[in-house]
Amino acid sequence: MIRLSIFLSLFFSLQVNAHVERGTYKGLDQNGEACSFKLGDTWFEDEINHPLTERLPITELKLSGLKPKYDMYQMGHPLIVNLDTGKIGYNHDLFQDIIPTFTGAASVTLYKTDTRPAKPTVLIYIEDHYKNPERAKKVTCTL
């Protein structure tokens, strides 16, 4: 019974981690300009190995003609709460971070493959300016 418990806990803990490979990724934005970013090692908040606490740091975000608001983002799976069924879950297909700014918010969303290891496919950076919507920016970096 102990062996079965150990096996099951190991099996499920391995299933939790997205295993996105760290490294620098390069692509092209919607205008054909170069874009790149660096992914760090996945970690878990409060040392709880669960998709809801999984974090993926992104740094060195380089977008043509745009300087991101922050040097680092700590992306996590977006949470999903279904009030009708009482279920709580997450979107496994992407990582996302949203940070408030004085003029609105900045976000980074990273879509990934469902393979092992997962590979980033598209990164979307958005700066929302609620006071001046004409200043809002969106860059899509496709790898």
Please describe the structure with a list of short key phrases separated by commas or semicolons.
five-stranded antiparallel beta sheet; 143 residues; disordered N terminus; 1 helix; mainly beta
Structural notes for this entry:
This protein is mainly beta. The chain has one domain. The chain is 10% helix and 49% strand. The protein contains one helix and eleven strands; from the N terminus they run H-E-E-E-E-E-E-E-E-E-E-E. The protein has one helix at 2-16, and strands spanning 23-28, 34-39, 43-44, 54-63, 72-76, 79-82, 87-90, 94-101, 104-112, 120-129, 137-142. The strands form three sheets. Strands 1, 2, 3, 4 and 5 form a five-stranded antiparallel sheet that branches. Strand 8 and strand 9 form a beta hairpin. The longest helix is centred in the first third of the chain and has 15 residues, at 2-16. The protein is globular. The chain starts with a helix and ends with a strand.
Output mean pLDDT.
88
Count of distinct structural domains: 1
Which residues form runs of ≥5 with pLDDT under 50? 3-16
Bulk shape: globular
Q: What fraction strand? A: over 45%
Residue share in helix:
10-25%
Number of strands: 11
The value of Rg in angstroms is 17 Å
Query: Sheet bearing the most strands, described?
Result: 5 strands, antiparallel
Specify the structural class.
mainly beta
User: What is the H/E order?
Assistant: HEEEEEEEEEEE
Number of discrete helical segments: 1
N-C termini distance:
46 Å
State the gist of this model.
With 143 residues, the protein is mainly beta. It is built from 1 helix and 11 strands.
